Structures
1.
Amino acid sequence: MNSKPSPSYLPEGLPIPVAEPDGLSAPYWAALRQNRLLVQRCSHCQSWQFGPEWLCHRCHAFDPAWTEVEARGRILSWERVWHPSHAALRHHGPYLAVLVELPHAGGVRMVGNLLGDPMQAVSIGADVEGVFEHHREASPAYSLLQWWVL
Amino acid sequence: MAVIGIGETDYVRHGASPDPEFKLALKAVLAACADAGLDPREIDGFASYSDDRNEASRLAAALGIRRLRSATMQWGGGGGGCCAAVANAGAAIVAGLADCVVVFRALAQGQYGRFGQTTGIDSISGEKAYLMPYGVLAPPQRFAMKVRRYMHEHGVRQEALRAIALASYHHAQANPRAVMFGKPLDATRYDASRWIAEPFHLYDCCMENDGAAALVMVAEERAADFQHKPVYLLAAASGSGYRAGAMPHNAPAYASAGFETLAPELYKMAGVGPDDVGVVQSYENFTGGVVMALAEHGFFKPAEANDFLTLENLIAPSGRLPLNTSGGNLAECYMHGFELVLEAVRQVRGSSTSQARRNDVALVIGGPMVTPASNLLLGSEAAR
């Protein structure tokens, strides 16, 4: 797993992710800042769950445990975005977003950007590895999880 | 229940309406009442969806209606509530909670913000926190990956999406209400249009408009008292399947429009099947969602999408399945799908500008790829 200090994939100025007022996702965002990926796994029935919820959807045990998982997976789908839907993206050019499935974590999925050439051919099913992208200068500081084709 | 009146404002590009959104809502309600030949003071209920800003109580006060007996709002789902709002109005009438219910949607994106632009958000939490920092901001980006996955699983080609866009524009050329009236689209122009988010070209995406649309419903026993041929609500369904709301992008049935549970329920309630449906209005936030929604309603198998979805098959009067015959969200007006419900009423009445030959049973599909979604069937006296 890489943690590289290089510039961010997309320009600064997009909305900054923060936990909800009730703190549901706070452990997830705090862990990203430390190069760790957490998802929920119910300690009662072992079901995986992401995004987080206060209840296990399978056995209804409250407060599913946050569990560290390896940031790797495979591409379930992708898109190349051309139209800027935010002022920060004006004149930026195309970028890639991918939906990554984590087979070793119950198949939970997460969205990120696919690093590298935005015009690269993207293969559904390709193996990818996570790259933590830190925005230390942002206020508040935050971290994202990006992906890189293996 | 029966629809006795329909009405809408002028449909215009976002920002082009001279009227404030609430005034648009009032104009649409009054137009629907005039179409029915109904004194607006007879209205005793309102139903809408997608957190419509134009509240029932303000409408009731503005119109001076004598008493308000039903005010229902369908939760969430973008345009997924466009049929559910009609169902909620119908349910109120059947339950005896109200006698005369207006269903409406008023939306002036030029006044309250365009759906295609994200502005004024410094920080974000909840579902969008997992998406927006990655540039997955507006609906095209939120749905493109779902469609890409569906195309991958079933071998659906870009031409299938294109046929849906072409059908909408074809029908809009006959419809003077349509924002794209007089602006035809052909395959060459579609292919040359810019990408918004692959696999969506510009013409795969709905417009952003200002306007309002409304209809009036009463119990079917009263329907004959009004000036138009009654159009009956044969069935309606709303909701979604197992954990469709698991965010972000974690719904088990990912490459889906979300009608797996709703379509069978709808047909069962009406006692009809896909072969009985003569004409379809299917909500196009994006063409790819229409492909999925039509397959889930049994018109073809996903693997047959490329063969079924041709311009010839999708146009009135005699295509296999005339689709979005007013131009819909792509080319008539993005009235959040409510223009589709009005068009289905016109089809059953026989007054569409692109009239389908078979019009006894008309299907409306609301909001593919969102939850809750909804659908409904309208029918003539012969279909009851």
2.
Amino acid sequence: MAQTLTPSSAVAHGSFMTQADRRRQEALTGYAFMAPAFIILLVFLIIPLLAAAYFSTTDWNGVTPLTRPDAYQSLGVRNYERLLFEEGIRQERFYTSLKNTIYYVLGVVPLQTVLALLLAVVVNQRWLKAKGFFRTAFYFPSITSSVVISLIFMWLFTSNGLINQGLGAIFPNYQNVTWLNDANGVIHNLLRLFGITRAAVGDWASVEIASIRLWDWISGPSVTMLMIMLLATWTTIGTMMVIYLAALQNIPRHVYEAATVDGANAWQIFRRITVPLLRPTTFFIITIGLIGAFQVFDQIFVISNGGPNDTTLTIAYLVYASGFTDQRMGQAAATAIVLFVIIFTFTLLQRRFVGDRAVT
Amino acid sequence: MATLALDTQPPEQSPVARFVRRALPIVGAIFLITFALIQILPFVYTLANSFKCLPVIGANPQAVIPVPPFGVPCMVDGSAVSASQQSSGITFNPSVEGYQEILNLNLPRWALNTVIYAVTIMLLRLAFDSLAGYALARLKFPGNRLMFLMVLGTLMIPAVVLLIPRFIILKQLGMLNTYQGLIITLAADGFGIFLMKQFFESIPEEIEEAAMVDGASRFTLFFRIVLPMATPALTALAIFSFQGQWNNFLDALVIIGGNQSLWNLPMGLAFLRGAGGETLRWHQFLAGSVLTTVPLAVIFFVFQRYFVEGTAYSGLKG
């Protein structure tokens, strides 16, 4: 348009196209821009979630085509009842996976958060040379494929592998530990050191809660699960350290200087200044840590397939196994929905603590 | 300056305090170096052992220094060479048989597939996520707020939960075990949209208003002016997406697991385990691990700044 030459052209332009026209055009552009991404999210994320909720109330096996009239029957909430409330093999499998997942989360999330924080604080020290090298070294494992890392760990910890050979070379009396095939719970192992065994503690240990004996509830993660926990921690601390480091560098220098002038020592500065100022970051890291830990799957798939003795069976692996191995798609969908509710609850709880700061 | 002032303060002069202040850097350095070794040594040993014959891996995994002769065979006259012939202490004669075997085992096909998935998904996400991010950041339309909340909501859906439902939907659409099944499913993501929206909101709106006054349409504006300014965010998104898809195992397992010729590298490696029967053919696994990791490692070292800044940015913004 020619009138763009004069300063008053904007006004002229406005009168050319009414306010309503312009608003409508902007809305159309908005929908056009949103359409591709939104349709994909709708079809492959939102609708599937609803479909999962629906199929969790059926006995579909995942194989029979849904077009056949007898493909599935509606079960109402039976799948959930069998998982959560009804004594039996499915309840036992579910609560075993819940127990394993809880031990996994309780071990991995605090460990990786604390280690990432400590590493970040040390890397952030002014006296440290070669900051870049350390950052790279810590970050590198987190870019590699979980499958590759699992294979490498399997190889390192295999019964005649590098770790056992190394330990054998250092300690002459060392008996090879089968790290990746040891179903003994670490808490059970600890208790045994003090002479506390199942036989010694009396009958209460045999009481079953949700199809699992009390004694088995307190087993702790199995040795194999502990190795997978260490593997997960090892992979993620790099990412978390980088996030902490960025937050640390956002803390103004004068805050520390003021504290030093006031006579605070290094520990007091860490405890009273660094940690409180990092609170939002810590909550973020705990959130992504929780979400990731509750979903642990790849490492289990490659290393242990849920074994030995179901001690590395996690909820995520149970979803996969009941859907694709046992061909109980309805049951698997119900398990997935329960997992979703668990993760969602944790996310909401976390948001309550952080208020409106964090979005994820 | 601050420490100088501190040194003149009597309470800080106690020998214990001085000792602690001197010792702290040393303790810190030991801590860091220990962890750096723990993070790096597994890769060093993987690399070294990927160049060994299977018996040498079993007998002498600790050997890390390659010495000539290079390229030794693992079989001589039909029987396996003994470990002591090819290694002693911390030295070994490198062999490339693990690599040869894995290259004959369909690895090139998996690598090609991985490139196809990683590149197409990355390009589609760059396009779709930035368009959607811009719409949410700048354009007013009924439902804008609701759509944003739905995008955020998808971030809370754990990938594992989608395992079963995605299988159901893709089966209904006839897209299980197809390239497009995996690619289209992952062609947009809530995280990318959110990242782009945050970035566009940080660009001053005056620039766009000036261009609007000049009569540019929203499309021209977006492609000519807004996108070029978004290079840092686009780079971060490209890297995250490429890395994520290069390593994507879970979605591949469910969506393309049924057709071996569509497998990507993580799928291929994960199922190599069962292929050799009882004996685990570590030289192949390790060679495969190295070949899977090297391309990403090269990209990582070239774009390291973006990896680290992108991660830090997502943390600060998150």
